[in-house]
Amino acid sequence: MAFNVDYEYLLSLRRNNPAWRLLCADSAPLILSFLNRVFIEANEREISEPDLVEKLEDELYSLRDIHGSDAFPRAAADYLYDWAEPDKGWLRRFYASGDEPYFDLTPSSEKAISWVKSLAQGTFVGTESRLKIIFELLRQITEGSEEDPALQIKALEKRRDEISDEIERIKNGRLRLLDDTAVRDRFLQFSSMARELLSDFREVEYNFRALDRDVRRRIALSTAGKGEILDDVLGRSDSIEESDQGRSFRAFTEYLLSPSRQEELHELLGKVFQMKAVLETNYDGRLARISDSWLAASDHTLVTMRLLSAQLRQFLDGRVWLENRRITELLQNISRNALTLESLPEGDFMELDEPGVEINLIMERPLFVPSVKSRIESGGVALAEDDAETDSLFEQFYVDSERLIENIRGSLAGRPQATLGEVTAKFPVTQGLAELVTYMSIAANSDSAFFDEGATEYISWRSEDGALKRAELPRIIFTRSLNAGGAIS
Prior knowledge:
- By secondary structure, this protein is mainly α.
- About 60% of the residues lie in helices and about 10% in strands.
- It is built from 17 helices and six strands.
- The protein has helices spanning about 5-15, 20-25, 30-40, 50-65, 75-85, 105-120, 130-145, 150-170, 180-220, 225-240, 245-255, 260-270, 275-280, 290-340, 400-410, 420-425, 435-445, and strands at about 45-50, 90-95, 100-105, 415-420, 450-460, 470-480.
- It has a three-stranded antiparallel beta sheet with strand order 1-3-2.
- The two termini are about 35 Å apart.
């Protein structure tokens, strides 16, 4: 989409665009470096306020130690609240569940960070791979839009002949291998597109939220009846799903969540990251698990879409309930007034006060009365006895759910699914029944783990005294697209 980049447009963009405001901010180096580290590099979609405040406090402490105690005088929470203000728009502060607020990066901040990263002078600029991608995209557009079956068949036959020639050339021993330069060219193009695709998810989610706010605004300001409002909401919900962005996102998730595609992607990534030319590029190690990051980001976006849909339905139900309650109250008032008037004699049954002005004289106001201060007696406070039993406080232990999630990941490597029995067989239970309960909690909080009530499994472990313990559980099945407090693939 082309934009008319003239003076007035750029002036408006400089005043109103959050990304431009961020680049112009005095504390831009702090904001960009901190948000890039905790959100983009860590691939985090939402961080609780206490955790983010703690991370920023550590960052500020390090910077003050280098640049002096007056470098950043405000508290970490004050900086975060300021960055989340509407006039800034660099962070989004919201309540995901419960009373604890969360923060997420806005697409504008991610664009600003990406632009700053692009300023770094690259040691190698690949052009061949981009040109081939351009040709491939143009070919897909023309062939995919061709309505003449004969022309489509002709294009496919041409590609078939090219493949046949390539096969014959390989059979005759004439291999055409990519040299190291071509491999690095294509790998750098893959790295750039993989990161861009990951950042696109945040903007897709942001756009869905904008569409949701527009629907809510229309409902709140509408004076139409329930039927008209319902038709409008359903129509707009369909328009969100059928928009270009909605269709593209749905096609992406269907393509990526295919078990065969996941297997193919993992196999390709494994081969690529073993090549010598790729190892020499000093690539970001997270690229080897970029498919996991894509799955986590897409799952988070799908959860957001379902949550927005549920909240929109609840919002509409609440409005309809209030309208029905108001109508019922009006009818009840009319009935009560009619019954009251029925027993009155004929004649006037309503009186109106004569118009007048209410006068309040100054001297009618009461005099000031000082408040009585309560006295608190704090004497006679004695210390409690310190011989209470505290041994049980130190006997508690903690089951690390992240370790159990990694166990599930390890059991799912190269497999579409695994049962809890298979997971514990590969990673034995070390913390007894509490560890099994944590496994069940992970499965219960995920949409991609299943409880097979028709089958049972027996999980065994040894207690601290060496006794053999065994628990009978319904069969729990974990799949590759599991998300339980973190992406598991």
